[in-house]
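User: I've been trying to design a sequence by hand for this structure and keep getting stuck. Would you show me what you'd pick, starting by listing the structure so we're on the same page?

Assistant: Good idea, let's start from the same input. This is the structure you sent:
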């Protein structure tokens, strides 16, 4: 079915274990289809080789489903946006190769997207021409996920500067490691969030690492949590089971307060009226609640994407592609996937 539109972008996301495709028509999302990989649950984390194989199986049916849902054909597409990185190289190669092949066969432009910038661009996704509230430039965005923890100064859609970052592990890893220690499933973040609702967040205390003015460090916190559990289980072998809700609530509260502690500091150096939250961990209910409270205390407006746009998805890749398309920022077929790409 031909669609008379100025811009019809196919977005493709394959940076980790979610295969996703979306169609963006003139800046409005018409489909956003994602295939999750449950196979990693039994391993307690993403296995790169299994992830890349699953992407190969999923990418064609996911793209076909996105086109069908949006009621467009491949001939209607005006450009293809794909995640070039950062992420798991094997997974990225699947999406990159597919996007390049389709771009070549259709003779349409190719747009390479930075995964973490796309998480920030998720704030500008529109659905059915409805104007969702979006932050005004410039603004500060806290991006939190399983692989990244950053404070980003966003001057313009394509002009961003990392002003704070983790020097080792990401906050999502801190959640998952704690979950593994306590024998919870994977991913542990949502499980800890749920268990915390019936727990006392002041029951147990943890310390803050010192990583610099606006930087984070979660490696030591993971070790601190492990030692905390081991020490108490030596006294009472049922300690974790008997105090599970309180442990989850206390640990989650500590991680969230640590994140927001540095975010609040950033306002002193980078004056703005809008604060944004992005990335998979931004789906955490306690973080969202405390983030809004911080914004009110600072006199700032706060912005958090819909839950469906917090985790990895192709709609944010297509949205990022739209900003780049408007500036004529296209890639050629020599582009290649990269596991590490700086945002600046």
């Amino acid at each position: 079915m031909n669609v008379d539109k100025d811009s019809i972008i196919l977005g493709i996301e394959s940076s980790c274990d979610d295969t996703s495709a979306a169609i963006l028509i003139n800046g409005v999302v018409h489909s956003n289809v994602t295939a999750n990989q449950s196979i990693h649950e039994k391993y307690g984390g993403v296995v790169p080789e299994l992830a890349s194989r699953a992407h190969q199986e999923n990418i064609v049916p996911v793209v076909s489903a996105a086109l069908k849902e949006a009621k467009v054909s491949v001939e209607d597409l005006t450009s293809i946006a794909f995640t070039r990185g950062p992420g798991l190289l094997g997974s990225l190669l699947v999406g990159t190769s597919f996007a390049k092949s389709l771009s070549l066969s259709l003779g349409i432009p190719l747009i390479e997207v930075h995964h973490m910038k796309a998480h920030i661009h998720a704030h500008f996704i529109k659905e059915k021409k409805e104007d969702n509230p979006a932050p005004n430039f410039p603004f500060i965005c806290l991006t939190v996920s399983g692989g990244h923890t950053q404070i980003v100064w966003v001057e313009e859609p394509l002009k961003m500067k990392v002003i704070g970052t983790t020097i080792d592990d990401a906050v999502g890893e801190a959640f998952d490691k704690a979950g593994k220690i306590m024998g919870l499933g994977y991913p542990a973040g949502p499980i800890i969030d749920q268990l915390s609702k019936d727990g006392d967040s002041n029951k147990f205390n943890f310390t803050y690492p010192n990583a610099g003015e606006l930087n984070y460090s979660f490696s030591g916190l993971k070790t601190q949590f492990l030692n905390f559990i081991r020490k108490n289980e030596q006294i009472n072998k049922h300690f974790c089971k008997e105090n599970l809700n309180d442990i989850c609530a206390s640990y989650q509260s500590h991680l969230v307060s640590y994140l927001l502690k540095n975010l609040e500091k950033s306002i002193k150096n980078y004056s703005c009226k809008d604060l944004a939250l992005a990335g998979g961990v931004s789906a955490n209910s306690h973080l969202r609640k405390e983030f809004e409270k911080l914004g009110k205390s600072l006199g700032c407006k706060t912005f958090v994407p819909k839950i469906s746009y917090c985790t990895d998805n192709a709609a944010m890749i297509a949205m990022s592609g739209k900003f780049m398309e408007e500036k004529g920022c296209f890639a050629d077929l020599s582009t290649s996937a990269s596991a590490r790409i700086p945002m600046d």
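That's my pick for every position. To get oriented when you compare it with your attempt: The first strand starts at residue 8 and ends at 13. Residues 8-125+309-326 form a domain with the Nucleotidyltransferase; domain 5 fold (CATH 3.30.420.40).
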